[in-house]
């Protein structure tokens, strides 16, 4: 049986301008695109008019499509089409389940390619003016999931002994993260930042400490999608913040014509947000 190829593609953290050239090339050639919650809008502007687009994303813990069904869908489409793009937010191998999907494809004899993307664990802090490493503040960084698999016996959150910790998918589990940080020896006054909708026009950042960040997040109504950064590098935001103070402007988005070579880039100063909408 003839079988196509699946391209597991990282779409980056949200700003379509951070999409890689390889990702754009594959989206333009794809017969089928299976995409996640944060991969719509400008990202699909490159697709062919006749490309089949299937939304299989999730918001928070609300999985619209179970992972097992996604795996079967990839296999089914690869057996019917030459080029299938699995478009994922961030990087597919950084808490993106790209490894699980690649394993499934390999077991079923489907060739695949991994296309790395800009991970929000690095990009969101950068857009907030927070370098995750700095010679004066941090020589090590950990990227940690903010919650464990529901089917695991222990849901204890990790708090590695690195200068900087970036928690993904952790804003709804902040009390447990704080407990883990204190238990591991972090000082209560250690700076913490939460970046919501990182790299997008509506990006918003709050800064607190290990001691008060959970309370502050509730007060400011910070919801997913958010990235939590812990460590002394957070202090640099006061000096290096740049994105959220940009002037109010935006470039025109492309028409979506496959022949349009313009990058779908949009950057503007965000309006005040209530913090009530959106999910991880």
CATH third-tier fold name of the largest domain: Methyltransferase, Cobalt-precorrin-4 Transmethylase, Domain 2
CATH architectural arrangement of the largest domain? 2-Layer Sandwich
Number of helices: 7
C-alpha Rg, in Å? 19 Å
Number of strands: 12
Walkthrough of the structure:
The protein has 7 helices and 12 strands. It has 2 domains: about 5-120, Tetrapyrrole methylase, N-terminal domain (Cobalt-precorrin-4 Transmethylase, domain 1, 3-Layer(aba) Sandwich), CATH 3.40.1010.10; about 120-240, Methyltransferase, Cobalt-precorrin-4 Transmethylase, Domain 2 (2-Layer Sandwich). A hairpin with a 2-residue loop joins strand 4 and strand 5. It has about 280 residues and is α/β, with parallel strands linked by helices.
Summarize this entry quickly.
The protein is an alpha/beta fold and 280 residues long. The protein has 2 domains: 5-118, 3-Layer(aba) Sandwich (Cobalt-precorrin-4 Transmethylase, domain 1); 121-240, Tetrapyrrole methylase, C-terminal domain (Methyltransferase, Cobalt-precorrin-4 Transmethylase, Domain 2), CATH 3.30.950.10. Helices cover 21% and strands 20% of the residues.
Topology:
Elements: E1 5-10, H1 21-29, E2 32-35, E3 52-55, E4 58-59, E5 62-63, H2 67-78, E6 83-88, H3 98-107, E7 112-115, H4 120-127, E8 141-145, E9 164-168, H5 174-183, E10 191-196, E11 204-209, H6 213-219, E12 226-230, H7 237-240
Parallel strand pairs: 1-6, 1-7, 2-3, 2-6, 8-9
Antiparallel strand pairs: 4-5, 9-12, 10-11, 10-12
């Amino acid at each position: 049986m003839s079988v196509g190829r699946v391209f597991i593609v990282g779409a980056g953290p949200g700003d379509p301008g951070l999409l890689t050239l390889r990702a754009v090339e594959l989206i333009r050639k794809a017969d089928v695109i299976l995409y996640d919650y944060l991969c719509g809008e400008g990202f699909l502007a490159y697709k062919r008019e006749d490309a089949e687009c299937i939304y299989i994303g999730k918001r928070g813990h609300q999985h619209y499509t179970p992972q097992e069904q996604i795996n079967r869908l990839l296999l089914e489409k690869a057996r019917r089409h030459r080029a299938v793009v699995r478009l994922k937010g961030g990087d597919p191998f950084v808490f993106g389940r790209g490894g699980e999907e690649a394993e499934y494809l390999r077991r079923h004899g489907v060739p695949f390619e991994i296309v790395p993307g800009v991970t929000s664990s690095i990009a969101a802090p950068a857009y907030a003016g927070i370098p995750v490493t700095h010679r004066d503040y941090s020589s090590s960084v950990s990227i940690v999931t903010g919650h464990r698999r529901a089917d695991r016996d222990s849901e204890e959150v990790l708090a590695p002994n690195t200068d900087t910790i970036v928690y993904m998918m952790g804003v709804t589990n902040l009390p447990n993260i704080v407990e883990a940080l204190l238990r591991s020896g972090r000082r209560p006054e250690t700076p913490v930042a939460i970046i919501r909708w990182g790299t997008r026009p509506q990006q918003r950042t709050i800064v607190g400490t290990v001691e008060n960040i959970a309370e502050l997040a509730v007060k400011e109504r910070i919801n997913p999608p958010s990235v939590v950064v812990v460590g002394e590098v957070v202090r640099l935001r006061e000096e290096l913040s740049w994105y959220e103070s940009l002037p109010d402007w935006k470039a025109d988005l492309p028409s979506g014509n496959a022949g349009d070579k313009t990058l779908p880039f949009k950057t503007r100063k965000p309006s005040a947000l209530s913090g009530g909408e959106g999910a991880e």
